[in-house]
Amino acid sequence: MAATKPKASTQSQSSGNMSPRVWLYSILLTLQYGAQPLISKRFTRREVIVTSSVLICEGAKVVCALILMAKDGTLKKLAKEWTLVGSLTASGLPAAIYALQNSLLQISYRNLDSLTFSMLNQTKIIFTAFFTYFILRQKQSIQQIGALFLLIMAAVLLSVGEGSSKASSGGDPEQILFYGIVPVLVASVLSGLASALCQWASQVKKHSSYLMTVEMSIVGSLCLLASISKSPDGEAIRRHGFFYGWTPLTLIPVVANALGGILVGLVTSLAGGVRKGFVIVSALLVTAMLQFLFEGKPPSIYCLMALPLVISSISIYQKYPYRYSTKKKEA
């Protein structure tokens, strides 16, 4: 039992003493995460088939991860240690979930403004907390529970604000709800489930961040390819071609998204969840700033009301983890 206590102290120490490399990864992830919605809307045409962009993105993740594994020498060990059963056990289900999540996010990108998308996407912390408790039995402190309620309030504000603002500007409220708000919230639920499953795999199976990226990208791509025959995207690919609507600029958001996936694993493994939380908060501010600078649209009143709630809830959730009582441990 004594071994469980140092884990919390180790995490707090790692969040306090950041190496230059971790600072670099954190800054890059902040910029990527905050800019991704704007990059996708600007460089991805509406005609682009979602499945094609997701598959190319997963392929780019595999290439990046394999290059990094070859660079740090872990690629050679795979031939002796890797097994198909172990790979499917650790990465199969999370990969299928993430593949569906990515498709939903691609749909949502096109129907929500960038800041609203980024803030609604943060509700995945609520579902991550739920599934982490359900699967790994990790409890939440009172402050964390309060932070989750703040985040729910922010999500409600954003849902109301997004529907009313776009309806008044001539948009279709039903399209905004069912093709913007609902997909990103469902993607958040799936993200929470997959995150808990990945944490279980890393603790039990001891998979590295790069290996998990490769396995999950391959399995997720296979799941998407299997669904193409009966999906609307599959019909569109057969009719118009795989790269319908693509331009050379379409590769920019695809590659950026792939690099972001690599950075998420690196920041989480090297700095822990506390640092990742600060990255998420900073990314919200980056999104707001970029949207104002490049699109000339100041945030709506609902976004302004929700922004401090999101920032406060994520900060409180990361700052006050559940601490097990020493008396209970001794008993």
Q: What's the arrangement of secondary structure elements?
A:
Elements: H1 5-16, H2 20-43, H3 50-72, H4 78-81, H5 84-109, H6 114-120, H7 124-136, H8 142-168, H9 173-204, H10 209-227, H11 232-240, H12 251-295, H13 301-319, H14 326-330
Helix pairs in contact: 1-12, 2-6, 2-12, 3-10, 3-12, 5-9, 5-10, 6-12, 7-9, 8-9, 8-13, 12-13
Can you characterise this structure?
With 331 residues, this protein is an all-alpha fold. The chain has one domain. 80% of the residues lie in helices and 0% in strands. It is built from 14 helices and no strands. It has helices at residues 5-16, 20-43, 50-72, 78-81, 84-109, 114-120, 124-136, 142-168, 173-204, 209-227, 232-240, 251-295, 301-319, 326-330. Helix 12 packs across helix 13 (301-319). It is globular, with a radius of gyration of 20 Å. It starts with a helix and ends with a helix.
Tally of alpha and pi helices: 14
Structural class: mainly alpha
Strand count, sense and barrel status of the largest sheet are: none
Summarize model confidence as the mean pLDDT: 77
Provide the domain count: 1
Number of strands: 0
SSE pattern? HHHHHHHHHHHHHH
Identify low-pLDDT runs. 1-16, 166-170
**Beta-strand percentage?**
under 5%
Our Rg estimate from Cα atoms comes to 20 Å
Inertia-based shape? globular
Helix amount? over 70%
Distance between the termini: 11 Å
